[in-house]
Design brief:
With about 70 residues, the protein is an all-alpha fold. It has a single domain, classed as 434 Repressor (Amino-terminal Domain). It is built from 4 helices and no strands. The longest helix has 13 residues. The model has no long low-confidence stretch (mean pLDDT about 95).
Amino acid sequence: MKHPFSDFGKRIKVAVLERGVTQEWLIAQVREKTGLYFDSSYLNKIMIGTNGNEKIVSAIKEILSIE
């Protein structure tokens, strides 16, 4: 079953598209910035609003310049 994106997930998707980068690029940037394990499954959970390590969420906001 496909879950809809949360508002934050939508902001991530728009920011990635506007920058012309991939989710893989974002994942690599978050890993480098935080030193934490982060993969596409974890990103999806953040985007649908079912998970969100504060350090990772903060890194995503900073990398993509979103709130």
